[in-house]
Design brief:
By secondary structure, the protein is mainly alpha-helical. It contains eleven helices and no strands. Helix 2 runs parallel beside helix 5 and helix 9 packs parallel to helix 11. The longest helix is centred in the middle third of the chain and has 29 residues. The chain is elongated, with a radius of gyration of 33 Å.
Length: about 325
């Protein structure tokens, strides 16, 4: 009895691939080539069978005559996107062109105001600066994520990089703003490419962009709330005290008492002449100025005027001490 030979098993389904002719692509997106088609940026004519995962079913054109962008990082893609917009803006529908112009204008105006307020309150690179910058970056990331989620292809969008906990020492507010404008512009492009009536698309784009830009402006409101009167006073007191940390609580107490006496806001007191003079004198007060007795005298001051007088006297003592030491050195 002859041994039974098992028949050859059939190849698994999907193991056959249609060979693609780069000179004559027949996928749906290539049928209108070269008119009315959009190039597939994944397809490479030199690798027709494995460069585009959709291959023969791809809805974008595989015509080899198309110029295809080289692989770029997100920043490079956003820069290319803006350059292409500037080159073709006159051919766009006016309403769409105005929307994209606004995308590249308003966020940068908002960012200029954010940076102005931060510089007014903090020294760049300080711990307080880094803290506030990190909070602003997180807010921008969330707003950018919302824009990405508004895209028709949002199921393909990965979580925004900007939402990841930032390394504040490496944060660049300007580049984060550019990331946001590029993300918002891409959202508009994806929405405009949808196969829907133009008026319908334009209405949705207008509403979505306006909501996003308003959310971006809210960053200033949140920043001002954090840097409100209490926050601003704290920073001004710290700036006036300089390296004399032991004076901070005394200064805060005297400002509060002076504000109550004059029925003014505490932030108004730190704009008065006595404060300006005190701040100037404290700049000349040596870190090791006087001793415990002098520090106690400053801590017991009952008004800003009295503290100013004590500080002036100590600065003068320090000056005379330095001059005496110089004279003694010269005589030797």
């Amino acid at each position: 009895m002859s041994a039974l030979v098992a028949p050859e098993s059939n190849p698994p389904a999907g193991s056959f691939k249609i060979e693609i002719d780069p000179d004559d692509p027949r996928n749906p997106g290539s049928l209108g080539h070269p008119y009315g088609c959009k190039p597939c940026n994944k397809y490479k004519p030199e690798r027709p069978n494995d460069s585009c995962k959709h291959a023969a079913t791809c809805s974008f054109c595989h015509g080899k005559e198309h110029e295809r962008p080289k692989h770029r990082g997100q920043r490079g893609r956003h820069a290319l996107q803006r350059r292409q917009f500037l080159e073709s803006r006159t051919t766009l529908r006016p309403e769409l062109r105005d929307i994209i112009d606004t995308i590249y204008k308003e966020p940068h105006e908002t960012m200029d105001e954010i940076k102005r307020q931060l510089r007014e309150q903090f020294n760049p690179g300080s711990a307080d600066w880094e803290r506030e910058v990190a909070l602003v970056v997180q807010q921008i990331g969330k707003i950018g994520d919302a824009a990405q989620n508004s895209r028709p292809d949002n199921v393909r969008v990965r979580k925004a990089r900007a939402e990841q906990p930032p390394e504040s020492s490496q944060v660049d507010l300007e580049s984060r703003c550019k990331w946001y404008t590029g993300t918002l512009h891409l959202m508009v492009r994806k929405m405009w490419d949808e196969q829907r009536p133009e008026e319908e698309k334009l209405k949705e784009i207008t509403t979505t962009v306006r909501e996003s830009l308003e959310a971006f402006k809210e960053i200033i409101v949140d920043l001002e709330a954090r840097l409100g009167p209490a926050g601003r006073l704290e920073e001004k007191v710290k700036a006036a005290a300089g390296h004399h940390d032991w004076l901070i609580e005394t200064l805060k107490k005297l400002v509060k008492e002076e504000a109550e006496r004059q029925s003014l806001q505490e932030t108004e007191i730190v704009g008065q002449e006595v404060w300006i003079q005190l701040k100037s004198e404290l700049l000349h007060l040596r870190e090791e100025a006087g001793g415990d007795q002098e520090k106690e005298a400053m801590g017991r001051a009952e008004s800003l005027e009295q503290l100013l007088q004590i500080v002036k006297e100590q600065v003068e003592k320090d000056k005379q001490s330095i001059l005496a030491a110089l004279e003694e050195t010269d005589s030797d």
